[in-house]
Write a structure and sequence with these properties.
binds zinc ion; binds flavin-adenine dinucleotide; 452 residues; Alpha-Beta Plaits; single chain; alpha+beta; 4 domains; Uridine Diphospho-n-acetylenolpyruvylglucosamine Reductase, domain 2; seven-stranded antiparallel beta sheet; Uridine Diphospho-n-acetylenolpyruvylglucosamine Reductase, domain 3; five-stranded antiparallel beta sheet; binds D-malate
Length: 452
């Protein structure tokens, strides 16, 4: 491939062609997907992104936008030898507006840096996930990332006040004005959010910030069964307005985390389910909790642990947050991120093992996730990376229960063949037409969302 023009646009420091240096960009976080690339492109400005995409459009060269490469569905991997357009060097935070609680940043800034910048100004950016120090704002927008605080603040889409992006023709689109009211036609940020790099490259965003809680408390709860845990989830949602997160995990995941990271378990017991609940709000949390219907359970259970300062809260959160790393250390997982309608979570979690066993009874299954959102991460170790049989069976089961085959990670390449389980042919045709309008040459992330 003739790369001279790209070197002219980006400078020699903005392009990496040595395969020994670009391997970090060609394998996905889970190691299930890998590829190769003639070059990793590292622009610093929107203008450079625009010129690169214009060149790719003119020369019909495909490219894969990439942020922190922490995605879980292979959407940022150049599996067919595409160029990688990494936003890693676009990390300027251009403005934190104290008065309105808004932040403007380039898309390559990590989620963690945005959270810290907000915090320095007395605000909070309310999307949080444990890959915060690697995941980019552009990646969280492209996947409409969820995370642990969706219950309280919504997904990434709810935080976006304005976007700047480069379409598949290289045109710069969108705006960063952040108007509270603006009903001028179709809502571009809403459409680009969750589009997984298939419509445009997000280059900048204006995001809303919220007031941080004055006091925070984490509570780890152990239960004999999932159904018991889910009844407490219902109670929490009904009676605690300060709840920020309500996460679930199970004994085998906890055991794996404790073994891999050599940490002591919370209790010497074998339990049916665990909930990690985060509460944050005005001073007086403990009093409000003890006046709530939850207090009966909290006062009588033997399996309750509180974390009220940063260190003790972190200690409780590690049991949940380290699941992803512990599972990946044990193998290359098939990650199926699904959500179930209200009332179906227990049935799903109880039956999914049996569905997997009918195909292969030697796999290992780890379930965990965001109980407050009905979102369970199904991790299967055992099948080879390209084997889709178990994925298909589980996702069909999810669809039959009325759930979503992708709650927060996106479709990427992993679920492109399964999109029809949740979307009609007519809907997929409309999706394709939308893609063609933004990306007429089909150069942006081919094979993601739509199978190639
Ligand atoms: P990448 O992996 O680089 O890319 C992801 C997708 O976005 C690809 O399709 C890519 O082409 C596209 N893309 C990236 N940047 C841009 C851009 N600027 N413009 C257009 N398209 C772009 N996800 C959750 O939703 N909730 C969680 O709780 C969560 N926890 C995680 C925990 C761990 C330990 C890990 C490793 C991952 C977790 N994830 C979670 C998944 C992942 O962090 C998110 O999907 C995140 O949004 C990806 O950001 P990224 O910058 O790494 O994107
Ligand atoms: C999480 O909630 O920890 C993530 O979405 C990552 C994963 O599914 O492993
Ligand atoms: Zn998650």
């Amino acid at each position: 491939m003739e790369l001279e023009s790209l070197i002219t646009i980006l400078g020699s420091g903005g392009i990496v062609t040595d395969p020994s240096l670009n391997s970090a960009y060609t394998v996905d976080w889970t190691r299930r997907y890998s590829g190769n690339t003639p070059a990793v492109l590292l622009p610093k400005t929107t203008e450079q992104v625009s010129q690169v995409v214009k060149w790719c459009y003119k020369n019909s060269v495909a490219l894969v936008p990439q942020g922190g490469n922490t995605g879980m569905v292979g959407g940022a991997t150049p599996v067919n030898g595409e160029l990688v357009l990494s936003l890693k060097r676009m990390t300027d935070i251009e403005e934190v507006d104290d008065a309105t609680g808004q932040i403007v940043t380039q898309a390559g800034t990590t989620l963690g840096d945005v959270q810290q910048a907000a915090s320095r100004h007395g605000w909070k950016y309310p999307v949080d996930l444990s890959a915060r120090d690697s995941a980019s704002i552009g990646g969280t927008i492209a996947t409409n990332a969820g995370g642990s605080q969706v219950l309280r603040y919504g997904n990434t889409r709810e935080q976006i006040l304005g976007l700047e992006a480069v379409s598949g023709t290289g045109d710069v689109i969108g705006d960063l004005r952040g108007l509270s009211k603006d009903n001028t036609g179709y809502h571009l940020p809403g459409l680009l959010c969750g589009s997984e790099g298939t419509l445009a490259v997000v280059t900048k965003a204006r995001l809303r910030l919220v007031k941080p809680p004055k006091e925070e408390l984490s509570i780890l709860l152990g239960f004999r069964s999932l159904i018991e845990a889910l009844s407490i989830v219902e109670e929490i949602r009904k009676s605690l307005e300060d709840v920020q997160a309500c996460e679930v995990f199970f004994q085998n995941g906890l055991d794996l985390v404790c073994e891999k990271f050599e940490i002591a378990p919370p209790w010497n017991a074998h339990l049916g389910a665990y909930l990690l609940v985060d509460i944050g709000g005005q001073i007086g949390l403990e009093e409000r909790i003890s006046n709530s219907p939850l207090s009966a359970f909290l006062n009588t259970s033997n399996f309750v642990a509180y974390g009220s300062d940063n260190l003790s809260r972190k200690k409780l959160w590690q049991y949940r947050d380290l699941h992803t790393e512990a599972i990946s250390a044990a193998g290359v997982p098939h990650k199926l991120d699904v959500s179930l309608p209200h009332g179906k979570l227990n049935e799903f979690c109880n039956d999914v093992q049996e569905i997997i066993n009918t195909i292969d009874n030697e796999t290992q299954l780890f379930l965990f996730g965001h109980a407050g959102d009905g979102n369970i991460h199904v991790n299967v170790l055992g099948p080879s990376p390209e084997d889709l049989e178990i994925d298909t069976a589980v996702l069909k089961y999810v669809a039959s229960l009325g759930g979503s085959i992708s709650a927060e990670h996106g479709i990427g390449r992993a679920k492109a063949h399964h999109l029809n389980l949740n979307r009609t042919t007519q809907e997929i045709d409309i999706f394709r037409e939308i893609k063609a309008a933004f990306d007429p040459a089909g150069i942006l992330n081919p094979g993601t969302i739509f199978p190639q």
